[in-house]
Amino acid sequence: MMLRLQRLRLPRPVLIQLAILAAITAVSGAVMTFGYAKVPALLGVGRYTVIADLSASGGLYPTSVVNFRGSQVGRVKSVNVTRDGVRAVLSLDSSIKVPADVIASVHSRSGIGEQYLDLTPVAGSTDPRNLADGDTITVGPEQIPPDIADLLDATNQALAAIPPGNLRTVIDESAKAVGGLGPELSRIIDGSTSLAIEAGQAIDPLTRLIDDAPPVLDSQVRTSDAIAAWAARMASITGQFAAEDAALGELLEAGGPALEEGRALFDRFAPAMPVLLTNLISLGDVAVTYHDSLEQLLVLFPQGTAVMSAITVANAGTKQDYRGIYLDFNLNLNLPPPCNTGFLPVNQQRVPSQVDYPERPAGDLYCRIPQDSDMNVRGVRNIPCANNPAKRAPTVEMCESDEVYIPLNDGYNWKGDPNATLSGQGVPQYPPGTDPRLPPPMGTGAALPDRAPPAAPAPVAFAPYDPATGEYTGPDGRTYTQGELAVTGDKTWESMLVPPGS
Questions:
Q1: Cα separation, 119 vs 98, whole angstroms
Q2: Backbone dihedral angles phi then psi of residue 387, each to the nearest 5 degrees
Q3: Selection from 496, 289, 478 nearest residue 388 by Cα
Q4: In the sheet where 102-110 sits, what is the strand order?
Q5: Which residues make beta-bridge pairs with 75?
Q6: Are the C-beta atoms of 104 and 52 separated by less than 8 Å?
Q7: Shortest CA distance to 376 belongs to which of 336, 421, 316?
Q8: Tell me, what's the pLDDT at 445?
Q9: Whether 80 contacts 87, CB under 8 Å
């Protein structure tokens, strides 16, 4: 007996091989049990159950895949019919967190079926919870695909509506329509897919756009009559373009050279354009200051144009209408006489024969007689102030201050010393406190002189005279007559050289 047992003892290499085979068998069995068959999952280990209420099965069947964000998260355990629809029991993986606020929809993997359930999070949801064991997901009719049988029946009816003799023609024409367009159709499909993906990523702006669209569309509905009128006018314009196609073509042909000439003109103006624009800035400032006056001018300009046009009516319908405009020129020289008050006295005026160009006085020179005088009624002293049309003043400074215009005198000529007038103002007129010929006012810190300055020499007075009578007006305003100034008919240039009385 002992000898027989010793004969059944296996060699060591065989035992090693058997041990390796047993280990491989155990590993394979574990892989089959836990990896493929997923026995723990079948027993409910690491899984939780969720219920999905569907209006119809949509081809969903037990063991269908449940996806979330493109990844498999579970399977359908069972599909049962209820009074209100179909109830699918889902077994989900506990290691993957699925938000509680999700939308479930049934999709097909191919055209022959293989439905699966896809879970999609609700955009903009603020619910922090995740799906837990026993939760229920509601699936609406819009998340259920159409029945493939109904789709095939509809396709069969559409094909039956085509006469059998024309079916080949339809197929041939369809082949011609899409023949060779495989790359283009592929690009269209790829572009549509990309567009759908981008739209999915921008779901919030698209939702706001859809929500904000009704007011805009309602406004279009309310203005449908105006839109129809605009479309009719646009059709009329385009119709006129079509009728005048030849003239429009000529305009376009001639427009190119004309635009080129315009561009060349602007190129020639380019060097002087900055200077022009700089000057227009100053002009704009003046226009802004006197915009009220300019507005009044534009209001009165049409009326003035009408009045000027009326002078052509004088000879209308007569034999003298060939003359055109009828005018009566009455010079009225020296009526009224010129205004000399407010300008430099004769002893300060330059000799007309001089050709130099000295600087003009810093002060203002203008006709400084009363504003109600009949002389120089359109002078600067009567211009209404832009900021106060009720006030008339010769300078902007006087318009913007409380200073009132004071004339130098009330007559046609000077009264008293031309440089010390009745108003106490000098000639030219300087702004208050800036006259360089007057001492600085007390309290300004100016040093007083040690002694009085020497008196200025008496100015030499000049006055115009009447050569016919020898009369002239003196600085005191009185009229004088000097006989030798009168020019008689018997005087010659030689007699003018002889002393008076000789």
A1: 9
A2: -85, -10
A3: 289
A4: 102-110, 113-121, 65-68, 71-81, 86-93, 47-54, 136-138
A5: 65, 91
A6: yes
A7: 336
A8: 43
A9: yes
393, 385 contact by CB (below 8 A): yes
Instruction: Please give the Cα distance from 66 to 96 (Å, whole number).
Output: 12
Question: Phi/psi at 89 (nearest 5 deg)?
Answer: -100, 125
How buried is residue 100: exposed, middle or buried, by Cβ count under 10 Å (0-12/13-18/19+)? middle
Q: Do the beta carbons of residue 19 and residue 12 sit within 8 Å?
A: no
Exposed/middle/buried for residue 483 (C-beta within 10 Å: 0-12, 13-18, 19+)? exposed
Angle at 60 between CA 54 and CA 66, to 5 degrees: 90
Share of the chain above pLDDT 70, in %: 76
- Residue closest to 87 by CA, chosen among 99, 74, 77, 97: 77
Task: Tell me the C-alpha distance between 63 and 76, whole Å.
Answer: 5
Spatial CA neighbour of 405 closest among 376, 387, 383 = 383
The 10 Å Cβ neighbour count of residue 106 is 21
* pLDDT, tens digit (0-9, with 9 covering 90-100), for 400-448: 888 888 887 765 555 444 444 555 567 777 776 666 665 555 444 444 4
